[in-house]
Amino acid sequence: MKKSDFYYNLPESYIAQTPVEPRDHSRMMCIDRNSGTIHHRHFYNLCDILKKGDLLVVNDSRVLPARLYGEKEGTGSFIEFLLLEQKGDKLWEIICRPGKKAKPGARFTFGGGRLTAEVVEVKDDGNRIVQFECEGNFYTALEDVGQMPLPPYITTKLENKERYQTVYSRELGSAAAPTAGLHFTKEMMQKLKDMGVDFAYVTLHVGLGTFRPVKEDDVLKHKMHSEHYCLPEETAEKIRQTKANGGRVIAVGTTSCRTLESVATFNNNEIKADEGYTDIFIYPGYEFKVLDGLITNFHLPESTLIMLVSAFMGYEETMQAYKVAVEEKYRFFSFGDAMCII
């Protein structure tokens, strides 16, 4: 498989800059996994597609306002931090720019001193380990000072921070939103529950590596980033019961998919409570162990995410669906429309 096999031409104007209001009024391409038949619906039509006994597995990770703009102590020169992963008490791995200002021992302030940070280490890949200091709770200070780390293809200012969070987000830790879940409203979730469709929660903290381009032309040489996940016992039990009762397990988003398939892979095809790190890479030829359906957005050309979708739906079917999506002027990427594959 070559990276170029997963290329498609996308007009820049099709990249969604703002989310649809209300959330569940985004369009949704529905694809029958067996026949490849495509129907054009809206996300709220999910209530007509799912049935009693189905289980939706969602990622409850919450996005950190992880982008910080500040200045270097002593010089007042500009610095930008992007938080990647917590390493200890107020100790974080970050990306910064300009990097030449962030040598070990350099100190920076954010929000007029609400947060301060000192560079502890420069890693081989150029990332920094920094120690933050603040009065009171670190996450409260971060909420006050930080901005949402929107992907680089979104250039319009986000007026409401919560629109880059799912309505069920609760576990702080992601550097990017699990965007397939952005389409749900609380009212729609309740309607689905009233129908007998259940929800189960996993946590996978999305790293920026999700957006890292595949550089190797040979897809199999690509090295995936590692992300922390947690699948609680309640979720494991719901999945087991759904399977036993003949219901469908449907992952909301590629992050939920990767969590489920990682747990099954690590536990000899068994779903049970598990926590750890995964760098699973799902591409065509992969045999799914858990999923019966997938709800996702439309992904970047040549990305690992479109490769995952191709593995689940089939390569030819996926590329055809994307061709149709462009022809039908769907909205693409994080704030874009949805795809439902069952």
Q: Mind sketching the topology for me?
A:
Elements: E1 27-31, E2 38-42, H1 46-49, E3 55-59, E4 61-63, E5 67-72, E6 78-88, E7 91-97, E8 107-110, E9 115-122, E10 128-133, H2 138-145, E11 171-174, H3 186-195, E12 198-204, E13 227-231, H4 233-244, E14 249-252, H5 254-266, E15 274-278, E16 293-297, H6 304-313, H7 315-327, E17 338-341
Parallel strand pairs: 1-17, 3-12, 3-14, 4-11, 14-16
Antiparallel strand pairs: 1-2, 5-6, 5-8, 6-7, 7-10, 8-9, 9-10, 12-13, 13-15, 16-17
Helix pairs in contact: 6-7
Short précis:
The chain is α/β, with parallel strands linked by helices and 342 residues long. 20% of the residues lie in helices and 27% in strands. The protein is built from 7 helices and 17 strands.
Description:
With 342 residues, the chain is α/β, with parallel strands linked by helices. It has 2 domains: 3-63 and 160-341, QueA-like, CATH 3.40.1780; 67-145, QueA-like (Thrombin, subunit H, Beta Barrel). The chain is built from 7 helices and 17 strands. Strand 5 (67-72) and strand 6 (78-88) form a beta hairpin. It is globular, with a radius of gyration of 21 Å. The mean pLDDT is 95.
